[in-house]
C-alpha cells in the first residue's frame, strides 16, 4: 500500500480538515528546509508528531491524551545532535 493510500485510511482523513492538513504539510517542509539550512551548525531542527491524540479535533478519540503527546515533545528537547542521523 502506498503512503498516500495509508494516509487516506487514517481516522483523521474522514473529517477532511483541509486547513489542518495544509498547515501540517507546510510544517513538514519547513522542518526539512531548516534542517538542511542549519546542517553545519550546532542547531538541531525537529518536528514532533505525536499521532492520533484525544483532542477536540479528533472528537476525543485517539491513542493518547494531549498530556502524553506533550511529553513526547518535551523529551525531544533533550536530544543531542548525532552526526550519523544528520540528513545526507
Amino acid at each position: 500500500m502506498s503512503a498516500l493510500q495509508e494516509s487516506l485510511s487514517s481516522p483523521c482523513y474522514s473529517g477532511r480538515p483541509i486547513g489542518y492538513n495544509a498547515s501540517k504539510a507546510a510544517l513538514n517542509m519547513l522542518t526539512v528546509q531548516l534542517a538542511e539550512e542549519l546542517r553545519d551548525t550546532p542547531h538541531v531542527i525537529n518536528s514532533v508528531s505525536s499521532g492520533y491524540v484525544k483532542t477536540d479535533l479528533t472528537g476525543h478519540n485517539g491513542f493518547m491524551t494531549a498530556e502524553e503527546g506533550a511529553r513526547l515533545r518535551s523529551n525531544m528537547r533533550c536530544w543531542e545532535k548525532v552526526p550519523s542521523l544528520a540528513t545526507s
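The longest strand covers residues 53-54. Residues 84-88 have pLDDT under 50 and may be disordered.
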